[in-house]
Design brief:
There is one protein chain. The protein is of the alpha/beta class and 347 residues long. The chain has 7 helices and 12 strands. The protein has helices spanning 2-27, 47-60, 90-94, 137-148, 167-173, 302-305, 308-323; strands at 33-41, 64-75, 103-105, 123-126, 152-156, 188-191, 197-200, 213-219, 233-239, 252-259, 279-288, 291-296. The strands form 2 sheets. It has a 10-stranded mixed sheet with strand order 3-2-1-4-5-12-11-10-8-9, sandwiched between helices. Strands 6-7 form a two-stranded antiparallel ribbon. The protein is globular, with a radius of gyration of 23 Å. The N and C termini lie far apart (68 Å).
Length: 347
């Protein structure tokens, strides 16, 4: 009897140990996704700070481990507003990474030897911009393979200005601005006042915006995982409203638009151009092979990146691009139809 009791106790102990082990496995934190932010070639001189802001936004979700890779040569960009008090070189000096790995220039760099193993990452974020040096052909082919095989890609603001000559990149981003693009790259795409999606083959410039101001975003795909639960209309803080983008717009969904007012979005530096007077794409989701791309035109300056609307859609768009799903909730301080909402970023 004593031996039988001992055997029963032993079986119970083994069972409890197994249950605890299985419970530990079940409650183990999920493996973090690996993300890479690429920067170093951007016409917006704030880009070193923008990279650090986006890195922190991804990491605060708890979903991502984030690396940064700066291009082989670095263009500091343009200080568009000379009234800004900070020195031209302030941002690159404050956020230098390893300054021995690259040379800096006050003029655009025309060539690149950039190369990296994209396959080690679940997500690539481009914080590049207008006049970014075109990647070598092997690097471009490797990136096309990475994305078509199921990789994730996020395009932020001026990153859609780059590489108009790279046909596959134009497919990846759906619509692009500037970068040598014209009507041969594809139509303008927008919603009219009747809610009809228009593909406009008109001749004309590719890329335009007026002065920065607050504008309203309208959700166009409320059932998409990125937009699910986001208000139908919400006020974005001061930013550039990109319009007149062109591209193939294949396998693409417009997630949200903003109204490019004829007068308010007219560039005062170019009297020949007026606002389009249509509801133009601000957020897009694109499928490229098995891969997913989230494209946001928002994010001109640090105060634009501090908008809770930018932060939330960037975080949710990144998760969707990397996994095809979104698990994050809409924060309580998300902007409303009448009020923008910002969080001051602390580095």
């Amino acid at each position: 009897m004593r031996n039988l009791s001992f055997a029963l106790l032993l079986l119970i102990a083994i069972g409890c140990g197994k249950a605890k082990k299985e419970q530990a496995i079940e409650t183990k934190e999920p493996k973090q996704l690996k993300a890479l932010i690429i920067d170093g070639q951007n016409n917006h001189y704030i880009w070193p700070k923008a990279t650090m802001m986006m890195k922190s936004y991804l990491e605060e979700t708890g979903l991502f481990k984030v690396d940064i890779h700066r291009m082989d040569s670095v263009w500091l960009g343009i200080k568009y507003n000379e009234s800004r008090p900070e020195p031209y070189t302030m941002f690159i000096e404050k956020y230098p990474l390893d300054s021995t790995k690259y040379k800096t220039s006050s003029q655009p760099i025309k060539t690149s030897t950039f190369s990296i193993d994209f396959s080690q990452y679940d997500l690539i974020v481009s914080n590049l911009g207008a006049e970014s040096a075109l990647w070598p052909e092997d690097t471009r082919k490797n990136f096309e393979k990475y994305l078509s095989n199921g990789g994730g890609f996020v395009v932020v603001h001026a990153a859609n200005n780059a590489w108009g000559e790279w046909e596959e990149f134009n497919k990846m981003i759906g619509l692009g601005a500037w970068g040598g693009r014209d009507s041969s790259n594809g139509p303008y795409v927008y919603y009219n006042d009747k809610g009809e999606l228009i593909h406009d083959d008109s001749e004309g410039v590719c890329g335009s915006h007026g002065p920065e101001y607050e504008f309203t975003l309208t959700t166009r795909a409320p059932e998409h995982p990125i937009m699910n639960g986001i208000p139908n209309e919400w006020l974005h803080t001061q930013d550039e409203l990109y319009e007149r983008m062109r591209g193939p717009f294949e396998n693409a969904t417009i997630l949200a638009t903003a109204y490019a007012d004829v007068e308010k979005n007219a560039p005062p530096w170019d009297p020949s151009v007026k606002g389009l007077g249509q509801h133009v794409p601000m957020l897009m989701a694109i499928d490229y092979g098995k891969g997913h791309v989230f494209h946001t035109t928002l994010g001109h300056f640090d105060y634009s990146l501090e908008c809770v609307g930018f932060i939330t859609t960037f975080q949710r768009g990144a998760e969707w691009a990397a996994t095809g799903n979104v698990t994050q909730k809409i924060p309580a301080d998300f902007p409303t139809q009448d009020n923008s909402s910002s969080r001051k970023w602390q580095d």
